[in-house]
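Box 3.1. Reading complex inputs
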Amino acid sequence: MRGVRSEVVKAERPPTADEGRRVGWIDRRIEAAETGSGNRRWYGGLIAAGLALAVWSLLCLSGRFSSLLLPTPGQVLTAFQQSVTLHDGQRGLLGSYLWVHLWASLERVLLGLAWGIVVGIPLGLGLGLSRVVDRILGPVVEFFKALPPLGYLPLLILWFGIGQSSKVWLLSLACFAPITVATAAGVAGVRMERVNAALVLGASRFQMVRHVVLPSVASDIVTGVRVAAGFAWTTIVAAETVNGLPGLGGLAWASQKELRADIAILAIIVIGLVAVASDGLLRVVESRVAPWKGRA
Amino acid sequence: MTIHLERRVEARSAPPLLATPVTAADAVAGPGSPAETACDLVIDRVAHTYRSAGGAPVEALAETSLIIPQGEFVALVGHSGCGKTTLLEIVAGLRPPTSGRVLLGGAEVVGPGRRRGVVFQQSSSLLPWRTVAGNVALGLELAHRSKAERRARVARELERVGLADFARHKVYELSGGMSQRAQIARALAGDPEVLLLDEPFSALDAFTRERLQEQLRAIWRQEGKTVLFVTHSVEEATLLATRVVVLSPRPGRVIADRQIGFTRRDLPLGQMRSDREVVGFAAELRDAIEAAGE
């Protein structure tokens, strides 16, 4: 009997098969949790950039596209050289050096973010802490969050002119909603046992906000600012369509009139790089602000 | 989307008028009752029903009355879901009762306050952005005590629970047992009259639990504070309490209320655990709970 039984078992499980199963992406998460690093390697971006460059070059080499519409990487590099040098009596591109364009856009984004933070955090706290504020202003914030910024740009230009203020208004309006929503969500997510702990220690409403709510939502606020910064960079071209020079968005937008696709691509690459860098910076802040996340 | 702090801290409106009000004085007037002192904790026909959204209301706690004289160590025991935590939250003032009231030294409890210190089941009730000492100091800070007083008090409480060397540690670096000791220190720092503990040791390993039980007993003997201790462990209740109150399964009702007081003995807890009388009493209690569960 026993012999028959063991034969059956053998037949079902050949000795070569492995026991159990591993799931790749979960392994990477475990590793990331242990080493404290994200599961993306720094060279991943380089490989992706190399691939994109290769595809781009191949498309150009195929000769099916006019170099006027699809400039080669070499042309874009030339545009970059022009943008940082004095050439043919011109400073940079479209009247300014690249860093002047960059700084102009960065200044607008920072101003927009600053106003978004100044309005968004108190509004988010209000929405999270007061039912009345939530009922009345909650739908307004949702509405603003859903609006495409380009849609209300004409109004802002009519009201605030074509100078700096209409651009900063546009970016502020694009920025405040995600910060508000993240802050309010953070308040809703404050651990009830921490609120209760402070209550039994005699915390007043103000003390509760100061000692429990604000420290709890700090990391949510940074997350909101990160999302808002992303919004700001995606909105910068829209903001700089009218009288946007100097500015990276203005540079990209004006290139169509001059039929300079190379400038447009250069501007896009620079905007993308700056946006990714600012996101990375805020990511670091995010992890520093609440080192206990996922641990307590 | 929102939490509403104001609803939890606001004072409740006038106490419900019941047909035959049993005041503390009435209730303690019976023969053999301990004399009422200023700081008795009186639970007067407290009941609680949870209203779930859409679903049928759940009666968690049936009308319950208890008079707890100052300095008594009362263990509330029962099956999970018998309303013992609900009752503790009502005494803490964190949850208004559906009916009835709680009196502390004659004053009606309308919300949380410093006279009742609470040790929560979850160690996540410690604030992770503060150090261990910062957490213990929180209550004193909220009460605007001077820095010198805060420092002295915090040092004393940390010393007492054996965390003096961990004052500057982050709370999320502490083990489960240390977290609960930090919670006890935090509750004691404000020198409350009543200490409320909600299954404080249930998540700890057996060795740590025994050490913390010993510590809690020592603190209670030293301070003589009134203690209301919620646990599902009959043994723990028997060892620590001077009085064990057993609640029935939902809705919770008092099915046994026994004075004991093994904890007054000078034996170490380790020896008491195997003491025949203690074991016998625990078995008796367990039988009562089992019988009620059927």
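In summary: Residues 38-115+192-294 of chain B form a domain with the Rossmann fold fold (CATH 3.40.50.300).
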